[in-house]
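User: I'm writing a short report section on ligand binding and want a predicted complex to refer to. Could you take this sequence and cytidine-5'-monophosphate and write out the structure as tokens? A short remark afterwards would be nice.
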Amino acid sequence: MSKVPVICVDGPSGAGKGTLSTRLAEAFGWHLLDSGALYRIVGYACELRDISWQDEAQVVEVAKALDVRFLPSPSGVSVWLAGEDVTTRIRSQEGSRGASAVAVLPKVRLALLDRQRKLATLPGLVADGRDMGTVVFPEAPLKIFLTASAEARAHRRQAQLLEKGESVSLPRLLESINERDERDTNRSASPLVAANDAILIDSSTLSINAVCNRVFELAASKGLVARSPN
Ligand code: C5P
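Assistant: Sure. The structure tokens for the complex follow:
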């Protein structure tokens, strides 16, 4: 594997991985891999073509042929599928369901592996997902497993959705988070699990700034960056 420094940020949905990864990538000037977006796009692309999320052979074809672009936008990164801005669409509850349905298929995961590894280019990569440290970048010098209680995650997700004008009840969100955790943790292909050498951070009672500062310090202590940005 290459000498490009990679920081893996794995953990369950809603633990704050996206915010942490974005801030790390911005602070260090590194590339960012939002691997969840890839699974979300595959789910959505299947929906567009009327392909069942369970039809592994066809979903693999969709995954291999994905024409996807991640472009900088005022609100962070926008995601484009074959010329269509799908950023909002793939972040919906339906988008989450599709992603976790196609993510259980081993051949689909395999089809996306190279695409993800190719993003590890200089000066470095922050990789956000579930299996970054265990499967995609097992030799990464810094692996974070960011977790939080299901309740804390449901509250955060509700606030995010409300910001986008989508209103979902807390019990429904909690149910969907528990369902997704269950499916992500118990699938046989690349289940959600901390790598042996991952550093566990529980963000239930920590602010995002506190989490970021801790990871900045870890990156600096490993010599991945010159010093901690404040
Ligand atoms: O991170 P995000 O919530 O966008 O991921 C959506 C879904 O994609 C997850 O619930 C999980 O099922 C799947 N996923 C995965 N492996 C990854 C990233 C996401 O299985 N590396």
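A remark for your report: The two ends are 31 Å apart (CA to CA). Strands lie at 6-10, 31-34, 68-73, 76-81, 84-85, 125-129, 142-147, 199-202.
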